[in-house]
């Protein structure tokens, strides 16, 4: 029997028994199962993370925990891409104890040179989570990512469109849509209506396309729309609406200006006349009734702006 201090800080008696074949080996026979029992109590449940574990193995353990944190789908997808395509190929062969500040600093500087600051910062974030887990399990004395060089970030100045730019953009969109229809090529989404809802709310493209009729109230004296989601891509399922926007601050209710109310009423009447009801999105694909991609909407917006001769329009907020 021995006394053992458990993880909760309470010291308990641990006892093991064995049958001795002779009087001389009685102590050794009892000692071996007692040592085994103490070892089992000392080991943490699940995977035993040690300094000799490869970072590729640590990555899988960290990922299993990270998936339970409730992070947004796009965040999980992006972090998994960074882990699989940058972190594991770059430093996955190292053992945890070999993940020194200098080694990780060189890796992140290489990522900056080859792939840019944004990718390097994501690599640092993912690695920090992984090695933080290792430190909590006692495989490291601390998280070495805290000591690596800072990765600089650049922030573009936010600029609102001028009245003249808004007019030029809308005129260019009307001209572009008219030329497409005249040629028999119908756009997959009414870009002018998408831009109008973005102008009315300040929503990102994905958030604008994710607006549903249940988010809109046109019956009040001051009609409103609430941004409650965004468009995301789910592997194996395609595009879908995520039930929360990109950031918590994006979940806002907006009073709609007259031009947006007029556009939404027009689309509502059109969907009812087409026997599609109002259970779908106000801004679906006119071909399939499904949301279009943010990327294609952005490409169409930039192309239209350029072809119409209007000034270069700054990207929507990120």
UniProtKB/TrEMBL annotation:
Domain of life per record: Bacteria
Assigned keywords, A-Z: DNA recombination, DNA-binding
Keyword Endoplasmic reticulum: no
Biased composition (Polar residues): 300-310
InterPro entries reported in the protein's UniProt record: DNA_brk_join_enz (IPR011010), Integrase-like_cat_sf (IPR013762), Integrase_recombinase_N (IPR010998)
GO biological process, one term: DNA integration
Low complexity biased stretches: 288-299
Segments for region (Disordered): 280-318
GO MF assignments: DNA binding
Gene3D superfamilies cross-referenced by the UniProt entry: 1.10.150.130, Intergrase catalytic core
Name the UniProt record assigns to this protein: Phage integrase family protein
């Amino acid at each position: 029997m021995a006394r053992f201090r458990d993880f909760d800080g309470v010291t308990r008696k641990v006892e093991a028994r064995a049958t001795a074949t002779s009087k001389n080996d009685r102590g050794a026979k009892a000692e071996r199962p007692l040592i085994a029992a103490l070892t089992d109590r000392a080991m943490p449940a699940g995977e035993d993370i040690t300094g000799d574990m490869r970072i590729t193995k640590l990555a899988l353990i960290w990922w299993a925990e990270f998936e339970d944190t409730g992070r947004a789908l796009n965040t999980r997808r992006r972090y998994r891409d960074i882990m699989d395509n940058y972190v594991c190929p770059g430093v996955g062969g190292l053992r945890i104890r070999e993940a020194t500040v200098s080694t990780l600093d060189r890796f992140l500087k290489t990522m900056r040179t080859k792939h840019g600051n944004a990718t390097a910062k994501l690599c640092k974030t993912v690695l920090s989570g992984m090695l933080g887990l290792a430190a909590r399990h006692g495989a490291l004395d601390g998280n070495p990512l805290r000591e690596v060089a800072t990765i600089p970030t650049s922030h573009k100045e936010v600029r609102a469109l001028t009245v003249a730019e808004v007019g030029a953009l809308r005129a260019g969109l009307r001209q572009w849509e008219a030329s497409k229809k005249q040629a028999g090529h119908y756009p997959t989404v009414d870009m002018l209506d998408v831009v109008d809802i973005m102008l009315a709310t300040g929503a990102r493209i994905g958030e604008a396309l994710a607006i549903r009729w249940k988010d809109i109230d046109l019956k009040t004296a001051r009609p409103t729309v609430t941004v409650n989601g965004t468009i995301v891509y789910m592997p194996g399922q395609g595009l879908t609406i995520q039930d929360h926007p990109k950031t918590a601050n994006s979940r806002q209710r907006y009073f709609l200006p007259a031009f947006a109310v007029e556009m939404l009423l027009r689309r509502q009447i059109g969907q009812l006349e087409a026997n599609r009801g109002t259970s779908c999105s106000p801004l679906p694909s006119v071909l399939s009734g499904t949301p279009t991609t943010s990327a294609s909407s952005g490409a169409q917006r930039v192309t239209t702006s350029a072809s119409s001769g209007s000034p270069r329009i700054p990207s929507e907020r990120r």
